[in-house]
Design brief:
412 residues; alpha/beta; nine-stranded mixed β-sheet; two-stranded antiparallel ribbon; 11 strands; 36% helix; 17% strand
Length: 412
């Protein structure tokens, strides 16, 4: 082990099917439950935590609650006085918390850092939720004619693919179907007991009605209450930790690479800037290739599993070619040949993703990291991908305004 490595020791997530407001729970209750569950699962003592980072988008809007670091400090007496930070980048908030926590370890400031992502969203009406989430676009400057901002925005992404390359809804419907199927195997999935029929992933307006533009109901990621936690450690702590828990390197994972890019706010400006380029969102491609380069990955064929942002089916469609699984504009090939399925050559979202598992906005990036650890540690249960050694993630916020990608591998 070298001092520059950042190890993932595991963690926990809440049940994404749970409606916390209905159970008379508050955001603090969710935060407390996930942190304590993570400590127990990872066999860590609260007194060992030296710093905490919290990813959260909009608790002031949804819960009228800020200062989440102070809530973290309340969980255990040992946390009172710790350094904490909160991070916001819309749906990429959790990944920003991970980047900052990893940087602290790389800088030698701390040896063990807790990273939590959290969002409570089902305590308001669907209309209010859509309005709050809409603040991640350039409010008042784009999508002002949309009833639901994000379905409209990602419908526009589909329109851009249609204009440049052509787009068949059958492929979007199949992506959604795969993620719901994957979610059935995940005991934390919001949709694990949902039922569909043969028309649910088609252009049938009754079984799969239009939400905005070309986006249909079953294409959409889920409004979800949820939290996830992981613990990042230095090589020094990881060595001691493995001796103490009688573990092996197979119980750990290492963050091998990362990429982080931010684009201009308006989606239409993103399309204009990329109009003469191969990739519809070249900064998204750059974040992925930055992570690959830092990890020593020369080709996507070296990746065993991908956990990617599928807030809508078209978002995953874009991820397929931006990861390099196909040439630009040819993502449909990987859908048709089964490459992205659970037993395909490069499974995408075996967890169920945002569509099948759920999307508590501030928690998603941390949940992706937790699932990356589960896969390389062999702890993913019924959705484990055989021989998974290297996992890539891609988490985006807004209309791909903030993009973070990680490569996570075994601790060899």
């Amino acid at each position: 082990m070298t001092a520059s490595k950042v190890f993932v020791l595991g963690g926990a997530q809440t049940d994404f099917a749970r409606n916390w407001a209905r159970d008379k729970g508050e955001i603090y209750d969710m935060l407390e439950q996930v942190v304590l569950a993570g400590l127990s699962d990872a066999k860590l003592d609260p007194g060992e935590i030296q710093s905490a980072h919290i990813g959260n988008f909009a608790s002031e809007l949804f819960c009228r609650q800020g200062q989440l670091g102070g809530l973290f400090a309340r969980i255990r007496p040992e946390f009172n006085g710790l350094a904490t930070m909160r991070h916001e980048a819309a749906c990429a908030s959790g990944s920003m918390a991970l980047l900052s926590a990893a940087a602290e370890i790389e800088a030698g400031r701390y040896d063990l850092v807790c990273v939590v992502g959290i969002e409570m969203m089902r305590n308001v009406s669907g209309r209010e939720c859509a309005d709050y989430l809409g603040t991640a676009c350039w409010s008042g400057h784009e999508f002002t004619d949309a009833q639901f901002v994000w379905p409209r925005a990602f419908s526009d992404l589909g329109d851009e693919y249609e204009r440049r390359y052509g787009l068949d809804y059958r492929h979007l419907g199949r992506i959604a179907q795969i993620n719901y199927d994957n979610g059935r195997r995940n005991p934390h999935s919001q949709t694990r007991s949902w039922k569909f029929n043969e028309r649910s992933f088609t252009l049938d307006d009754e079984a799969n009605p239009v939400v905005e533009g070309r986006v249909r109901r079953n294409d959409c990621g889920q409004i979800t209450d949820g939290a996830a936690v992981v613990f990042l450690a230095s090589a020094r702590f990881a060595e001691r930790y493995m001796q103490r828990v009688s573990g092996s390197k197979q119980d750990l994972a290492v963050i091998r690479g990362w990429g982080h890019r931010t684009a201009t706010m308006r989606l239409a400006d993103k399309f204009e800037q990329s109009k003469d380029q191969q990739y519809v969102l070249p900064h998204l491609r750059s974040a992925i290739t930055d992570a690959f380069g830092r990890a020593g990955v020369s080709d996507v064929g070296q990746i065993d599993v991908i956990e990617t942002h599928d807030c809508f089916a078209v978002t995953e469609y874009a991820a397929i070619d931006h990861f390099g699984i196909t040439a630009p504009g040819q993502s449909w090939r990987a859908v048709e040949d089964g490459s992205i399925e659970a037993r395909g050559r490069i499974p995408i979202n075996p967890s169920g993703g945002l569509i099948g598992l759920g999307h508590p906005v501030g928690a998603t990036g941390v949940r992706m990291m937790l699932d990356a650890w589960k896969q390389v540690a062999g702890r993913a249960g019924e959705y484990q991908v055989e021989q998974a050694k290297t996992v890539a993630t891609m988490n985006l916020g807004g209309s791909a305004t903030s993009v973070v990608s990680f490569v996570v591998g075994t601790a060899d």
